[in-house]
Amino acid sequence: MSARYLTTTLPYVNADPHIGFALEIVQADALARVWRAAGDDVFFSTGTDEHGQKIYEAAEKAGQEPQAYVDRYAAEFRKLKEALNLSNDTFIRTTDPAHVAAAGEMWRRCAAAGDIEMREYEGLYCVGHEAFVTEKDLVDGKCPDHGREPELLKERNYFFTFSKYQDRLLEYLSRPDSIIPDWRREEAIAFVKGGLEDFSISREKARLSWGIPVPGDETQIMYVWFDALTNYISTLSWPDESGNFKKYWTDGQTLQVAGKDQVRFQSLMWQAMLMSAGVKTTDQVFYHGFITSGGKKMSKSLGNVINPLDLVEKYGTDAVRYVLLRHVSPTEDSDLTLDAIHEHYTAHLTNGLGNLVARVMKLAEEHVPEPIAVPAIETLLRGDRKTFESFAFNEVLDRIWHEIGVIDQVMTNEKPFAVVKEDAERGRRLITQCVEQLAVIAQRLAPFMPGTSEKVIAAVRANKKPENLFPRI
User: Fold this and answer.
1) Of 383, 312, 244, 345, whose CA–CA distance to 86 is shortest?
2) What is the pTM for the complete model shown?
3) How far is the CA of 242 from the CAs of 46, 236, 273, in angstroms?
4) 281 near 274, Cβ under 8 Å?
5) Who wins on pLDDT, 99 or 149?
6) Measured on CA atoms in the order 286, 287, 293, 294, is the torsion positive or negative?
7) Phi and psi for 259 in degrees, rounded to 5?
8) Inter-axis angle of helices 424-445 and 355-367, to 10 degrees?
9) Sign of the CA dihedral with 118 first, then 120, 124, and 128 last
10) Which structural domains are found in the chain, ordered by start?
11) What is the CA radius of gyration of the chain?
12) DSSP 3-state assignment of 87?
């Protein structure tokens, strides 16, 4: 049995949950379920990122104190656990006292290593990114991601000596499995070879008060990224280096799941911080692509934002999990519209799996005298595990839907419903074979669609037709 640690990034709580983060957390959940089914000891973490200037400004605009504001939005993200049937073991908030203490310890260790220096800096600051940018990052003088001009700031901040870690990061990235997919690893290597610049890790408290104070300097607040990145180990009770931290991070296998825009933060800045603090680096980071809608980036102004909670309310948990894991590429950008989601639901779930289960189990209930034995999940997942661990969730589901199609062909071509009336024994054999194949499919669906898997298995064990799995909408 292996100890495995798995974490998503922490979404920023300045807006409601969006479909891109739902993709990330459902991918992570599917992996956690596969590993647990195989007998591994898994610690699965997620949570919320709650400090920084964007949060402060959003709270001010809403007429709320920052803590009240983040409490409200953190509650929205907590809803994802039930809405998406997530199996995470913990939900960390960067305003948690234990995390605040851990961020302070990370700072002290990096400072003790000689990697934190006070400097005066003048530059263009993008509030949206909460980072300094250069002229070459701008389009027509504005940040292309946020559509606003950066502010010219001059202040004294603490800097992390990122440039010292160029060689060590290249050595870390030389491991082929350090980043999946490989082209993201090549992207990280190219960034490092282009030369690393030391980055600011604090802000003046007089300008921004919402954050964690710098240890030993009450005039400065930690830069939100330096604070937030520490969550990946603070959630394991670090700096206590025994218990969960030793079991899952030091001695276990670690995997972080993140969006493709996170490569610099997760695989470079965070790894350099760990090196500086004398902590083991992350074993592997998996980067997924973005979800667009109608060929455009989702935005409130375009009216094409898809809220996962709204989708769950309309189609149900497993339908949303199914669409995200089969009809969205694990690594490339994918386009998803409300019309496409409805089409997938109707074609593959209502008319597909749901209809097939109803037909087969109705025949079993009427003509098969005893329930069949359901095969063990461990055996069934063994064949899918390699594909799972290459993060090709859609390929596994394609194979499962192929098997669904095979049973459907048996029902259409061999007509067990007609055969059983003329030759009861042969008809029962055909129906039993279909039920046996359905049971296999139900077990293989468990990591993707756990609720549906349980309902189909329960129907097989009871030898009864279940209630409609996917009602027509």
Assistant:
1) 312
2) 0.92
3) 21, 10, 20
4) yes
5) 99
6) negative
7) -80, 160
8) 140
9) positive
10) 3-288 (3.40.50.620), 337-462 (1.10.730.10)
11) 25
12) coil
Asked if pLDDT for residue 396 goes beyond 80, the answer is: yes
Report which DSSP code applies to 327.
S
Name which of 143-157, 211-225, 280-294, 366-380 the model is least confident about: 143-157
* pLDDT at position 301 over 70: no
Instruction: Calculate mean pLDDT across residues 180-206.
Output: 95
In this structure, the dihedral spanned by the alpha carbons of residues 304, 310, 315 and 317, taken in order and rounded to 10 degrees, is 120
| Strand residues in 252-309 grouped as ranges (E) | 253-259, 284-288, 291-293, 296-297
Rounded distance between C-alpha atoms, residue 270 and residue 281, angstroms: 9
Phi (first) and psi of residue 371, to 5 degrees: -65, 150
Q: How confident is the model at residue 300 (pLDDT cuts 50, 70, 90)?
A: low
- Residue 1 pLDDT grade (very low, low, confident, very high; cuts 50, 70, 90): confident
Amino acid at residue number 280: K
* b/e code 315-328 from CB counts within 10 Å (16+ = b): bbbbbbbbbbbbbb
Percentage of the chain lying above the pLDDT 70 cut: 97
Q: Which residue has the tokens 């610049």?
A: 197
Is 80 exceeded by the pLDDT of residue 327? yes
Task: Report the alpha-carbon distance of residue 94 to residue 97 in Å, rounded.
Answer: 8
- The two tokens of residue 327 are 């009809």
